[in-house]
Amino acid sequence: MQLSNEAYNLVYEKYKHQHQNRFTHILGVVEMALYLADLYQIDKEKAKIAALMHDYSKYDDFDNAYNLLNKEDLEECKKYPFLYHAYLSAEEYKKLLGNDNEIYLAIRNHVFGRPNMTKLEEIIMIADYTEKNRTYKECIEVREILLSGDLNLAIYKSLEYTISHSIKNNQLPHPRQIEVLNEYKLKVEKL
Is residue 81 one of the residues assigned to a domain? Predict the structure, then answer.
């Protein structure tokens, strides 16, 4: 049995009774990730596993983190709570399925990426933002950019929107978020 089938079963069992909208979102991310993996010639099995597991711990209690996250990650998640589910989902992937570092990083960094991302990390990050069940205006705009073939611009615009959203909600963006934004701004300007 492929590992992605195992990942599917884990996610299905976790979300079949509660948070069915999250399961629908996850399947949307899988669909977009597989499309992008094909387009950018990335391992589809890895893309599928990362997409399935990216929100595995979305609703888990923060207390679960103390056994899986190191002290630095715990402190970072206290300051930036939106990272918690990504870090914990990545650790759950390692605990439950495997230790492929590329998949691990794609899950861990799916919220807003990191400098020098792998193509798999880029795909999972942008698939999460642009999957077909996301219907808000900014997502639709970024999805159109992505489907027109401009991955770098799609990532840049998604970061611009998420940072703007944080600021409007009186939350400071993560410093790494700004780093990634600046990296992709340079990539877009080079074209």
Answer: yes
CB-based burial of residue 90 (10 Å sphere; 0-12 exposed, 13-18 middle, 19+ buried)? buried
Look at residue 98 and give its three-state secondary structure: coil
Helix (H, G, I), strand (E, B) or coil at 62: helix
What is the chain's mean pLDDT, rounded? 94
Q: How many helices (H) and strands (E) in the chain? A: 10, 0
Q: What pLDDT is attached to residue 188? A: 96
Instruction: Tell me whether residue 149 is in a domain.
Output: no
pTM above 0.70, yes or no: yes
Residue 155 lies in a domain: no
Checking 132-140 for CB contacts under 8 A at 24+ apart, the result is 132/28, 132/31, 132/32, 133/24, 133/25, 133/28, 134/25, 134/28
Structure confidence by residue, pLDDT tens digits, 61-115: 877 777 888 999 999 998 998 899 999 999 999 999 999 999 999 999 999 999 9
DSSP code for 133: T
DSSP conformational letter for 136: S
Nearest residue to 55 (alpha-carbon basis) of 12, 95, 5, 115? 12
- Domain assignment of residue 20, yes or no: yes
**The two structure tokens encoding residue 109:** 């960094």
Structural domains in the chain (count): 1
